[in-house]
Structures are given as C-alpha cells and as structure tokens.
Amino acid sequence: MHWWIPTNASSYGGDVDRIFYIILYITGFVFLVVEGGLLVFLVRYRRREGRTAAYIHGNNTAEIIWTTIPAVIVVMLALLSQKVWSTVKDPAHFPADAIQIGVHVKQFEWQFTMPGPDGTLGTDDDIFRKNELHLVVGRNYAVQLTSQDVIHSFFIPAFRLKQDVVPGMTIVAWFRPTRTGAFDLACAQLCGVGHYRMQATVYVHSAEDFARWQAAQGTPAAAAAVATDTTMGSMAMPHSGGTR
Amino acid sequence: MTAAAAPHDAGLHAGHDDRPWLRRYVFSTDHKTIGIQFLFLSLTFLLLGGLMAMVIRWQLGFPGTPVPGGSVLPDAMAPGGVIRPSFYNALVTMHGTFMIFFAVMPLLTGVFANYLIPLKIGAPDMAFPRLNMWSFWLMIPAGTLALAGFFVEGGSAASGWTAYAPLSNSPLYTGVSAGQILWCLAIIIFGASSLLGSVNYIATVVNLRAPGMTWMRLPLSVWALFITAILALLAVPILAGAIIMLLFDQVLGTHFYLPTGGGQPLLWQHLFWFFGHPEVYILILPAMGIVSDVIANGSRKPIFGYTSMVFAIGGIAGLGFMVWGHHMFVSGMNPTLGTSFMASTMLIAVPTSIKVFNWLGTMWRGNIHFHVPMLNAIGFLSMFVIGGLSGIFMAATPVDMYIHDTYFIVAHIHYVLFGGSLFAAFAGIYYWFPKMFGREMHDGLGRWHFGLTFVFYNLTFFPMHLLGLGGHMRRLYDPTQYPFLAPMQPINVFVSVSAFLLMAAQLPFVVNFFWSLFRGPKAPLNPWRDNSLEWTVPSPPPHGNFVETPTVYRGPYEYSVPGELEDFLPQDRPAPARQEAH
Predict the structure, then answer these.
(1) N or C end of chain A, less CB within 10 A?
(2) b/e for A73-83, b at 16 or more Cβ within 10 A?
(3) Whether A52 and B367 lie within 8 Å, measured CB to CB
(4) B277 an active-site residue?
(5) Structural domains in chain B (count)
(6) Can you tell me the distance from the alpha carbon of B165 to that of B163, in angstroms, rounded to the nearest whole number?
(7) What is the ipTM of this complex?
(8) Could you count the other beta carbons within 10 Å of the beta carbon of residue B379?
C-alpha cells in the first residue's frame, strides 16, 4: 500500500520533494513545540484551590522574539522555493532543446500531438493519440497546452507537475522524465460531469523502446532516425506570451 | 471620543418594551433578537451543509453504491439511491456555498457581531437598527434561492463554490442553467446582507462606545469583528461585481469571461480571489476574537500582549488583500506574480504566530478553568495551529504545484474553517448562551459534544492530508477510477466512517441546545465571572440593554488583579481607591 507521495520520476521532482521535506521538518518541529507547550501549560497551570494566576500583561522581548523568528524562517523558505519555482515555470529558464508536444484538451479528453520521426511538430509525420502520451526517458519536453472549452488542469503526480489549461491561452510547461514506466495523468480542475474520468497515461520509454513504438506508428524507415537524432534545436515556439 | 447613543425610537428605554409581537420577535430591530435569528438560521444552514457533506462522503467511501435512504431522492439526482456525477458536482458546489456564505459567515458575524458589539461597548443598540433588520431578512431569500437550485430543471449550480468561468458561464459545459443563475442571485443578495451588516458594525463601534470605552479598552472580540466588517465592506462588492458580470455572461450574452468573445477566464479568478482571500480572514478573525476573550477568562489572566494582538488582527487583514494570487499559482498567471504572492503569503505566518504565542502566553502561569467554552477555545487553538502550519506548504510555490487542487487543500481549509472557526463558534455559543436565553447549557452534554467532536473531527480531516500527498484530486466523483488512487481507497473509507461519526457527535449539542432553551437552570448574572459589560445587565438583557449608560474604567481582561478579593474586575466598576488598575 502506497500512502505517500508517489515516487518521483522527473528531473525537478526531487527539488520539489526536498522543499516539501524541509517544510515538513520545520512545521513538524513547530507543531511539537506549540502543541507540547500547550499540553504542558494545560496540565501545569490547571485550576487548583489557592492558586492565583499571575497578573502579567505581556512582555515586549517575547513579542519581538516570536515575531522575528517566524519572519526569518518564512523568508528563507520563500527564497528556497523561488529557485525551484523559476526552474519549473519561468519560460526564460525552459530548456532550449525541448521536444515540442501539442496537448489539446476538451471535455473530457486529452489529445496529444507528438512529433514523428522528423522530430518537428506540425509536420505530416506527427503522431496523434487520445489519452496516451509517449516519451523518451531523459529527454526534455515542452507541452503546449490549449483548451477547447473550459479550464482543465494537466497533472502528472509522478512528475510533480500541475498546470491549468485555460481556453484562449497557450500555456507551455516543461519536464524531463527520469524513469521509464507508465504514469497517471489526471485532470485536477473540476471541468464538468466527466471530470472524474478525464484521465490519460504517460508512457516513458527507453530510447530503443520508443523507436520501436514510433516505428510501429508510421514508416519503419524513419524510425531509426529518431534514435540518433537527439536535437530539436531551439525551435521558435509557435505561440508566444502564453503565460501572461 | 466616545458618546452615548440617543434612543432610536420610543421603545428603546431599557425595561419598557411595548412593541407588538411581530416587531418584537419577527421584524425586530433589536440587535439581540437579530443575533438570535441569525443563530437559528445559520445553524439550520450548517446542518444542511453537513448533510450534503455526508452524501459526498458516502460516494467517496463507497462509490457507486446506493446511499442509505437515498431512494427518496429524485432520479435526476440519484436513481435508485446511487449518486449521479452531476448531482455529486452539485453537492460539492452547494456544500461549499452553504458552509461559507450561509453557515460560518453568518454564524460568526451575523450572530456574534450583532449580539455582542452593542452589549460589549455599552450601547443601547446598533447605529442603524433597520439596516440591521434588513441584513437578516435578506439572508432568507438568499438561502432559499441557493437551495431552490436543487429543484429546478438541470439541477443546482455544479461548478464548485468558486464557480470558475467558463465552466460556470454556460449550460453547454455543465448542463446547468437555471441553477447557476439562482446561485448568482443568491450570492448577490447575500452580499447585500453582508454589506448592510458591515456598515452597521463599523458605525456602531466608531460612534456608540460608552464613556471610557477607548479603542485600547475594547475586547479583542469587538476589535476582530470591527476589522472583519471593514474587510467585508471592501471585499464583498468585488464579489458582487464579478458575479453580476458572470450573470450577464449567462443571460445577456456578454463575454467577460469567455475567450470566444475576447474575454478572459482568469479575470474571474482574479476578481473571485480578490474577494475570496479576505473572505477567509472574514471567517477566521471573529473566531480569533471570541477565542481571545474565552482564553483570558478561562485562564483567569489578562490577555498576553493586548496591543500586539490588536496589531496582529490589523496585519492579517491588511496582508489579506495582497495574497489572492496564491490560489492561482498554477492557473496560468505569470509565474513572476506567483513569486510575489508567495512572499506576501509567507508573511502572514508572522502575525498569525504572534497570535498563537500570545494565546499560549495567556495560559502560561494562569489558573486554567476547563469550562466548556474554554475546552472549545483550546480545541480551536490546537487545530488552528495545524491549519496554519499546513498553509505554509501551499504558500511554497513548488510544493503547491503538486498539492494544489488535491485533498491536502481540502484538509487545510477544514482545519482552518472547522477546527478554527467552528470550534470558536461553539465556544461562543456555549459562552453566551446564558446571556442570550437566560438559561445555562448542560455541562456534561457540552463536554461529551466537545470530546467526541474533537476526536472524530481529527479522524475525519487529518487523513485527508495523506490523500492529498498521494495526489488525490479534490471534487472527484469516483477516485477508484485512477490506478494511482485506488490503493488509497481504505483511507477514503476510514475518512467517510469518521465523518458519519462526526455528524453523529453533533447530536449532544442539538439535544443540549433545545433542552437548555426550555429546561435549562436559570443562569446567574455573571456565570463565567467575566469583566465585559454584557455581564452587568440581566440575562437576557432588556430592550435597550442598559438602564443607564455605563462608564468604563479599564480594559476587559483585568483578571487576578493583586489586592482584589475576587479574581476579576469588571470594566464598569469604579477604580479601587488605592490605584488605577490599568
């Protein structure tokens, strides 16, 4: 039984998990101190015959201490988070060699357009799939997210990635799978009656497996090319300003 | 600086009440009657919202099996008792809507602001009693319209209580048409009610304080309710404006939120959360105020750091207007904005921890009486700490990217709104019930209610953190559909069973409430030995509250003053000859 965060399968998932654990340890410690202190006070200062409560209105030193310490901690957490956040979400930091994939969603279906053996999206050999996405382990991908109707959310738990898909916008998200296998892709934003079954599967292949899969889709001759062709170049994105 | 109010109408001299029955109990302008009306109304809506939650939990724990007793539901909702996905989405939407707009918000502001503000500041009534009456009576059509959605063609609104456009824009996307329009109308009317209440609370606190009731002698409950009213006054019109635009999109064919006509779906989210985040503080600040009063009383000690408590309330309220974007980290908003919203959100931890540590400081070296209101206040404190700490996970943008829209969020909101606001509301009800009705509530039943609620509350909501960390999305009709969620189904079953027991644990409260209303022993004048002005008048207080406008000599938290015979020193008792106490 797996009752915890799924095993990470993306390049930046480990960084996300690290921040999660740092926050978990800090808040866990604060939780123990505060709830422990509360319990001690409740027992130690419970009502007793003859006991008189101290007549104290406060203490400025204490106020300064418990204002400063949380402030320092949260500023530190914000700085740590900022680094990972900009790696994942800031278009300026997206890898230049990412393979482009088109993701078009509508109620309640994921439509993936993957480049064919020529490695370029928008050409005749593009491979189109509903509710299944095929990737090569260790390669950078940029998904161009568009929606036909309402807001959906592109959520791959194992990659730690979530990005809403908003009609009228083209939003780009990137990731690099680090493990092979089949992973769930879910819609995380309520999108109508079929929201609960709007799921897809992400297949992360080894390069050889992927070549075999790709070959099975189209011309066998072109399949061999993909194994050696590792570059996509810094192809200009067909849409710009998508995240504004 | 302070002024006593002139009586507003002929019936307002304390003790002489010759109003006809209808003006006295139904269309009353008396703040106490209105507060009690709000109490009955909000508890009814709380029960409704709770029942919806039970049906939701049944579906999540036992998907696809008939709800016990569900065969009474029409086929459009649950054929043969099995919940339809459309009905599930409607329930999720209306549970949130009812709990936030019609249960917790009126419970905290409608009940306690109305009942307590004039009594605690030494005023005969609110500044605008007729507006006040309207603020209650508008809630009846608002709640009725929201509820009516379940009975119209297409069913109730089903786009979540957040009504994200364009899902909420068009019946094309949800199959809901009339229900969503009714939802919009209900919230607009609710907004009018909330605004009328807010101007009233603000004007009353500013103008009607008794002589000697300076700002820094106000009870923290009054401070919190005052600042909450300012928040509502500034935030609710934004919601109303946003919803009017949504309504136009639905019925007039405008495209404010529809990209097909050049509109922007994200505009709705910005407007909604610009209201929505202050709203969260509207729901928690009054709770903090009530708990501050109760903890000082229970500890028999002055509140620790009164001034910083006041500034912390102001700080939370001010920051509340700068953090709305943290609901939108993964919405497609510019990621640079995400960074600034993360920074402002993280800062909220500062005034929040000031409050928590000051409550602990109040108990430190106290003489803690574990009366039922105090138990609930301690429940608030211990649970609010969890809700506050789990908020830090979401404030961190990379972590939010994973836990956003999962059960982690559901756990967090319930730790703040149930563990926080509702425990405080229970503390307030137990505390002021004797004042409202002149009778005491049953102590044993109150303890059972607290104990069972505390246990089953945690068993219900704590495991939701685990579900969320496992990636369990919220608003999901059937989690077993997903291979990665199926192994966590035992947690869902456990949560559902705990939720049913949590609902059952409210039975002692209901019994206690109604039994005490009619059969409870007569309450003494000041059962909690409290300093505040409401305990100097009979229970229930007469129309007009005070026979003579009281004079205030000190703050409300003068407990265990050295040299005094008793461990409390009421605000209106003239200064002891030897010294001015504060």
Answers:
(1) N
(2) bbeebbebbbe
(3) yes
(4) yes
(5) 1
(6) 6
(7) 0.93
(8) 24
Q: Which two tokens stand for residue B67?
A: 């709800």
Is the C-alpha dihedral spanning B569, B570, B571, B574 positive or negative?
negative
| Residue A152 β-bridge partners | A165
From B265, B367, B469, residue closest to A47, measured CB to CB: B367
pTM for the model stands at: 0.93
Tell me the nearest-neighbour CA distance from A210 into chain B, angstroms.
23
The predicted-structure confidence for A184-243, as pLDDT tens digits, reads as follows 999 999 999 999 999 999 999 999 999 999 988 865 444 444 444 433 333 333 333 333
pLDDT band at B7 (very low <50, low <70, confident <90, very high): very low
CATH number of the domain to which B219 belongs: 1.20.210.10
Beta-bridge partner residues of A173: A143
Alpha-carbon span B168 to B158, nearest angstrom: 8
Average pLDDT (A47-71) is 94
Which candidate in B472, B474, B543, B573 is catalytic?
A: B474
Identify all chain A residues contacting B363, using CB atoms and an 8 Å cutoff.
Answer: 38, 41-42, 45
Write down all domains in chain A, each with its CATH number in brackets: 13-48+57-89 (1.10.287.90), 96-228 (2.60.40.420)
B182-215 confidence digits (pLDDT tens): 999 999 999 999 999 999 999 999 999 999 999 9
φ and ψ at A184, to 5 degrees? -75, 140
Among candidates B160, B347, B488 on the partner chain, residue whose Cβ is nearest the Cβ of A74: B347
pLDDT, tens only, B49-87: 999 999 999 999 999 999 999 889 999 999 999 999 999
Q: Is B193 a catalytic residue?
A: yes
What's the Cα-to-Cα distance from B111 to each of B4, B43, B417, B425, rounded to whole Å?
23, 10, 17, 9
Q: Where are the beta strands (DSSP E) in B213-315?
A: none
Decide if A70 and B172 are in contact by the 8 Å CB cutoff.
no
Print the domain residue range for B216.
31-536
CB-CB under 8 Å, B488 with A155: no
Distance CA B377, CA B71 (A): 40
Q: How many angstroms away from the CA of A129 is the closest CA of chain B?
A: 19
Query: In terms of Cα–Cα distance, which of B452, B346, B470 is closest to B397?
Result: B346
| Active-site residue, B496 included | no
